[in-house]
Amino acid sequence: MVKTIRASMQGLPARIEPMAYALLRLGFGIVLFTHGLPKALGISHGSMADPMAGSIRLIQDVMGLPFAPQLAFLVMLLETVGALMLAFGLWTRWVAMAFFLEMIGICVALGPTWPWIDRGIEYPVLMALLAFYIAVRGGDGHGPSLPR
User: Fold this and answer.
1) Statement: residue 122 has pLDDT above 60
2) Residue 66: its pLDDT value, please?
3) Residues 40, 45, 50, 52: is their CA dihedral positive or negative?
4) According to the model, what pLDDT value does residue 80 have?
């Protein structure tokens, strides 16, 4: 019986890897979409009463970048349209690289002041690593993507 089970498990990881990767990409896109949608709709998100205003403040006051409202709008587009594109495998490498850069920016801007326990830096660090992996791995052949 053990030999039968072992034989049936032979090659299982290779067979389910594409499905596991698609699930990972879908979950990543959904999580990011939940951050962009409140910005797009102007509704609260967790403890943030106005996430778009919070993004503008972060970009302007913490990061010191010009054109904060315009950049916040681009972030909102990335976290809504880009998240859906990533979830569905469209332009996977381009979108994942944009998310990687966004998460690195958040890490650089907020990393020194964020503890590891409450609203910690581990979230954008993990999201940056995941975005980097998806950018390197690319799509699964179901939609346009940056060539390897």
Assistant:
1) yes
2) 95
3) negative
4) 98
Which residue, among 52, 73, 69, has the nearest Cα to 60 in the 3D structure?
A: 69
Domain count within the chain? 1
For the segment 131-139, the average pLDDT, to the nearest whole number, is 93
145 found inside a domain: no
The Cα–Cα gap between 41 and 48 comes to 13
Residue written as tokens 């090659």? 11
pLDDT at 9 > cutoff 90: no
pTM: 0.84
Closest CA to 105 of 139, 145, 78: 78
| Close Cβ partners of 95 (under 8 Å, ≥ 6 residues apart) | 78, 82, 85, 86
CA-based nearest residue to 32, from 97, 86, 93, 101:
86
- The C-alpha atoms of residue 45 and residue 53 are separated, in whole angstroms, by 12
Residue 2 lies in a domain: no
